Amino acid sequence: MLAGIIGGTGQMGRFFAEVFRAAGWDVIVSGRTTPLTGRDIAGEADLVMVSVPIRATVAVIREVAPLLSEEQVFCDLTSLKAGPVGAMLASRAEVIGLHPMFGPGAVSLRGQTIVATPARCRPATLEGLLSIFRDQGAAITLSTPEDHDRMMAVIQGLTHFGTLAKAETIRRTGADVGETLAFTSPVYRIEMGFVGRLLAQDAGLYGDILQMNPAVPEVLAAFEDAVRTLREIVESGDDEEFRTFFAENAGHYASYLHTATEETDDLINHVVNR
Question: What is the pTM of this model?
Answer without folding.
Answer: 0.91
